[in-house]
Amino acid sequence: xxxxxxxxxxxxxxxxxxxxxxxxxxxxxxxxxxxxxxxxxxxxxxxxxxxxxxxxxxxxxxxxxxxxxxxxxxxxxxxxxxxxxxxxxxxxxxxxxxxxxxxxxxxxxxxxxxxxxxxxxxxxxxxxxxxxxxxxxxxxxxxxxxxxxxxxxxxxxxxxxxxxxxxxxxxxxxxxxxxxxxxxxxxxxxxxxxxxxxxxxxxxxxxxxxxxxxxxxxxxxxxxxxxxxxxxxxxxxxxxxxxxxxxxxxxxxxxxxxxxxxxxxxxxxxxxxxxxxxxxxxxxxxxxxxxxxxxxxxxxxxxxxxxxxxxxxxxxxxxxxxxxxxxxxxxxxxxxxxxxxxxxxxxxxxxxxxxxxxxxxxxxxxxxxxxxxxxx
Length: 376
Hints:
alpha+beta; Heat Shock Protein 90; 5-stranded mixed beta sheet; 8 helices; 11 strands; rod-shaped
């Protein structure tokens, strides 16, 4: 995507440069043409002034009247205003308007001389026509259009990439759930057989827990890509259940602490939300290398419930904190780097909440924050 974006940017820049160069040449040609027209117009004006009753002024008048686009100012030898054409005068302070306009033109332009006689000389100043003024801005307008087009194209490309990525995730998740279904069914049958044959075996309840866990995992995968049903749930109970599950599957050197009011309720899909919490806890255990403390704290802030999952691990460098939720990002030797990416999808797309790195200090630990709306 980045390479395609760079090529598109270079192509856009090339179009703007070529357009600016071509427009500049065109403007120069039109400026020369307008100068020649004004010289002809000045000569026609001189002939009109010198005409007597025997002179045919029809052609001269036609030349003068034909100028309907170029603003013209005529002054005497001392720079005093005489007449104008195609100029929109203000309603007030007309003389002051012409004085300022002529003073500006005298500084920026060489006038066209109109010699009436040996003793009488007048001068013509003119401004660019509307067409020429519009051409000056044409490259900028074109650049703006191309810039907007570039933004739309990049947005469309990004949307297509995200959509394709989502389809891959959904397909992978549903296929995983489907593949897990067959062995889980077999395990359930074997479990039932073992319970009938060895009803007093103390290991069977633990086997039953693991099979139920596999069913929960399969259910989670099956829900990815489908609109989950969000129901009110007691946050303390859900977090306690997550901690209880993690405690039995991590080292005793990992200490879990929960700080949560027992009356907080949020609208969540419990299987998916548990997945997020467990994923954050597993990452924390890996970051602490099996030794340390994980604290889960839920805070009420108006209509928001803020859930902080903190650890005493190795922390995340500042330059990496925006990358941890990107698909494929991982610091582990194994794994696909999809855990936090899926967690972000579950919280932000399904639960309409937020998840981000609240704070992280290298060598001290990390705090992930989840924000959800309080259930009413």
